[in-house]
Write a structure and sequence with these properties.
- 48% of the residues lie in helices and 20% in strands.
- It is of the alpha+beta class.
- The protein has 4 domains: 5-37, no CATH class; 50-96 and 205-352, 3-hydroxy-3-methylglutaryl-coenzyme A Reductase, Chain A, domain 2 (Alpha-Beta Complex); 101-202, 2-Layer Sandwich (Alpha-Beta Plaits); 356-402, Helicase, Ruva Protein, domain 3, CATH 1.10.8.
- The strands form 3 sheets. A 4-stranded antiparallel β-sheet has the order 3-8-10-9. A 4-stranded antiparallel β-sheet has the order 5-6-4-7. A two-stranded antiparallel sheet has the order 1-2.
- The chain starts with 9 loop residues before the first helix and ends with a helix.
- Keywords: NAD, Oxidoreductase.
């Protein structure tokens, strides 16, 4: 009996692809028996470099933070921004009293007041059902916190379930509870569109703040330019998109390194950036008392246990480097890195341009691209750094001259 593709081994799947033997062998060498159990149609691992932000002060504690990224200059910038913020006593974190994920049961074609009345009248049944559906989260001190009906449009309603998932990211916990709750709405069955969590984690909104004495930035003029750039991004979505992308360079690198869902974090962040009807920068900078003050608020859903996190040794190792005790602590550290990343980018622009420094960080990748061996990298990069204009042709020529 012929196997279906998903039933094949990783090497059998590779054999179906139009690849030469050397590429198949390279993909085979990067296989992991553990990771083969995590995704479908697995063939090999795709490795992303992981570096470290060496020292950032978060709520008075010095933290080292792993960052997984393929983009040169991200980790260097994060370290630079952290150094500046550490000069102002580091980052302070403000969390909600209790963080929670939100699940939705979606209705259409039904008057809002009918569902609102029904939800209010059956609170006890909802809470009992949630406890029965997921008793393990209650044992850990979590569980359903609230159920509210919310009018979305004239004929659309969402019933929102807030669930404290403790240190788990919690998607499966929320969806399990929602599936158990849906039959309680049998009276409205024909109006139910579906039941699913939302990645817009507004009940997990965290705020981080920090300041830098203006002399550490290079003077008041640089600080004023940073504020002006930030203000521009409050009014121009083109600028805001680039500023937030840079912010997520740092945030998503930590989210990825710790085995969390960077796509969910970014989607939530972009929705939050649009909450006032136009897309804006997520950070705010101002000058006060000869200091540059920065603030970042972001809904962020991450975990430290369960799911893929527990299945991936590299994620567990990254969490050990950070050395935090809870998902809420992780949220604060991740956003602290985001604020540092944003500061470094704005300072680079305000100080005369980001491209020169950015390109210098690219030279190692360029050297590898043209075939430099590990022992040749330092010399070639050093020579490239001395030039005003660099491209692959120039790098290749210099490498050939080095080898003569």
């Amino acid at each position: 009996m012929t196997k279906k593709y998903y039933e094949l081994t990783p090497d059998e799947r590779l054999a179906f692809l139009n690849l030469n033997e050397s590429i198949r062998n390279e993909l085979h060498e990067n296989q992991s028996a553990n990771n083969a159990q995590i995704i479908e149609n697995y063939i090999s691992d795709f490795r992303v470099p992981m570096g470290v932000l060496k020292d950032i002060i978060v709520n008075g504690r010095h933290v080292s933070v792993p960052m997984a990224t393929e983009e040169p200059s991200v980790i260097a910038a994060a370290n630079n921004g952290a150094r500046l913020l550490n000069g102002g006593d580091g980052i302070s974190v403000r969390l909600p009293e209790r963080t929670a994920m939100i699940g939705q049961i979606l209705f259409t074609g039904c008057p809002f007041h009918e569902i609102e009345h029904y939800v209010a009248a059956h609170q006890e049944a909802f809470f009992k059902t949630a406890r029965q559906a997921k008793p393990s989260i209650y044992k850990r001190g979590g569980g359903l916190l609230s159920i509210k009906a919310r009018q979305v449009s004239n004929d659309e309603v969402s019933v929102d379930f807030e669930v404290d998932t403790k240190d788990a990211m919690g998607a499966n916990i929320v969806n399990t509870i929602l599936e158990a709750e849906a039959p309680l709405f049998s009276h409205f069955e024909s109006h139910i569109l579906g039941a699913i969590l939302t990645n817009y984690a507004t009940s997990q909104c965290v705020t981080v703040t920090g300041y830098v004495p203006v002399e550490l930035l290079g003077g008041l003029q640089v600080a004023e330019k940073i504020v002006a750039l930030n203000q521009f991004s409050k009014h121009d979505s083109y600028r805001a998109t680039t500023e937030n992308k840079g912010l997520f360079n740092g945030i998503s690198s930590v989210v990825l390194a710790t085995g969390n869902d960077w796509r969910a974090v970014e989607a939530s962040g972009h929705a939050f950036a649009s909450q006032y009807g136009t897309y804006q920068s997520l950070t705010t900078w101002r000058i006060q008392d000869n200091k540059l003050f920065g603030q970042l608020s972001l809904p962020i859903s991450v975990g430290t246990v369960g799911g893929v996190i527990s299945a991936m040794p590299q994620a567990r190792n990254a969490l050990r480097i950070i050395d935090i005790a809870s998902a809420d602590e992780l949220r604060g550290v991740i956003l602290a890195v985001g604020l540092a990343q944003n500061l470094a980018a704005l300072k680079a622009i305000a100080s005369g341009g980001i491209q020169r420094g950015h390109m210098r960080m690219q030279y190692r990748a360029l050297a590898l691209q043209v075939g430099a061996l590990p022992e040749e990298l330092e010399l070639l990069v050093s020579q490239l750094n001395k030039l005003e204009h660099v491209d692959a042709t120039i790098a290749s020529r210099l490498l050939m001259e080095m080898r003569k």
